[in-house]
């Protein structure tokens, strides 16, 4: 997406200032949204100390326009060659999505920062200066003419965001009502400064809270690491005990097997001894019986047989 499809920038190439010492110079930059969706934009410059832009960041609804005031601080004296400054402005813009409700978001900067850099388009404007003719005075405001040709060979300066104005910088407001508008403008700048300070304090608190959460996470990680080490040591101890018990169990089983074998051998020997003794007793008993049946002592006379 190009800038020509998103915004109509007027003037489109050049911002012209007619210099006058001791006078605040103001120019109007008109931006028109050519699409139906809201567009967020931001204005940057190579000389943020010389210019004040209001607003420097905002959102333009579909089909709407906005006027951006570019205020140049008063000069103590006019330089001989002011065009040697090579001041430039850069307009960056990007289209927001349909689901982003612009009315509910109070910070355009957040909307602009949420845009991917690949979806941003930009347009550069050169600053040209003329010395004010004698007899003219007052605050200059209005549209700037466009130069047919823009120098593009001096882009060595870094484009910085235009800072929000602060009281005491010498930048005056519009000169519609003279000094009264200057006081109201100073109050407006002071309110903006207080708002920026509150945002800075809130950001500092968020950073400190993030650091505190990081310290808590590191401590929790260290505690969890210690617990894991204790658990590993406990597992190693249990494993050693299990291996010791397993070794003892195997030794006991071997000793029991040897004891049972010894008992079996002893029982077998006792049985054999008893069998031998029993056989001996039987042999003696049979010998006695045989002897008594067949072997009579000498001199023994059998009794006579009775007659038939």
Automatic annotation (TrEMBL):
GO terms for cellular component: endoplasmic reticulum membrane; plasma membrane. The keyword rRNA processing does not apply. The keyword Ribonucleoprotein does not apply. The chain crosses the membrane at residues 274-294. Gene3D superfamilies: Immunoglobulins (2.60.40.10). Residues 6-130 form the MSP domain. It is found in: Membrane. Residues 169-181 have a biased composition (Gly residues). InterPro entries: Ig-like_fold (IPR013783), MSP_dom (IPR000535), PapD-like_sf (IPR008962), VAP (IPR016763). Residues 149-159, 183-225 have a biased composition (Basic and acidic residues). It is a single-pass type IV membrane protein. Residues 135-225 are annotated as: Disordered. GO terms for biological process: endoplasmic reticulum membrane organization; endoplasmic reticulum-plasma membrane tethering. Keywords: Membrane, Transmembrane, Transmembrane helix. PANTHER family: AT11025P-RELATED, VESICLE-ASSOCIATED MEMBRANE PROTEIN-ASSOCIATED PROTEIN. Belongs to the VAMP-associated protein (VAP) (TC 9.B.17) family. This is MSP domain-containing protein. It comes from Hemiselmis andersenii.
